[in-house]
Amino acid sequence: MKLPRRTFLHLAAGATALPVVSRVAWAQTYPSRPVRLMVGDAAGGAPDTVARLMGQWLSERLGQSVVIENRPGAGTTVATEALAHAPPDGYTLLMITPSQAISATLYDKLQFNLIRDMVPVASVARAPLVMVVNPSFPAKTVQEFVAYAKLNPGAINMSSPGIGTIPHLAGELFKVMCGINMLHVPFRGGPAALTAVLGEQVQVYFIATSSSIELIKAGKLRPLAVTTATRWEELPDVPTVGEFVPGYETSLWFGIVAPKNTPAEIVDRLNKEIGLGIADPKIRARLAEQGNTVLSLSPAGFGKLIADETEKWGKVIRAADIKVE
pLDDT at residue 25 above 80? Predict the structure, then answer.
């Protein structure tokens, strides 16, 4: 039966109004049970540490437990797929990092679309990587490093915790922008990659600040530059890569996302509470201890960061023809 246009529009308006009322009422009682915050990395890593810090804060603010669930595997895609298929009710969240933005291109035939299947909730923090070499390496600046690489083609090996990790991609971006050749040597995890630099098996490593700061201060690693757009306050005398290579920027960032169609009222509530958290002096101090600075963006601004990073790393992966084993 064909409905008259006016009758159809009236029914359609009623059909859309009811769910809106229902969602508002739902959001007003949120949360009424524990919230699950998934992490696509193993316990003890930087994403897990940030997630546990924010989970504890949210538990206190929301009046419900926030349970951290580590679901590592396949470059964080295991956890991301679980989020994409979770009910959009605010009870399943995901700590997101550059790994998700990288994996969106690195892995074929994913059962989700990172941008389409999630809604950004709140950014939390950002941290630089540090471009480090063994103190015995002749280069003391980025300029000297690039000059050495060009004079000694094939002589530089680059360490990383594995194919497709942010240290790997940071090095690949550096290679492309500097026009140099470095052989990527992937290891099984960060400790092995770091040991290789300390043992002079490889020459350079784009390493997380939390894993390198004490070794740098002890003189066991030489920092050439930090990878963020601005200098890091913990190493104020160490320049940025961008001071020598204009436009270069790489950072670790952390934030929280929810499944698409999560009610806006719930997203706004979570965004507000997380914003209060990262403004709290104790939380800021804990983040700083881990080498992070607060990253305060609106949900829309955080969504733009995720989209921009996904596009950026997609270009690097395709240009370097990076394949997972």
Answer: no
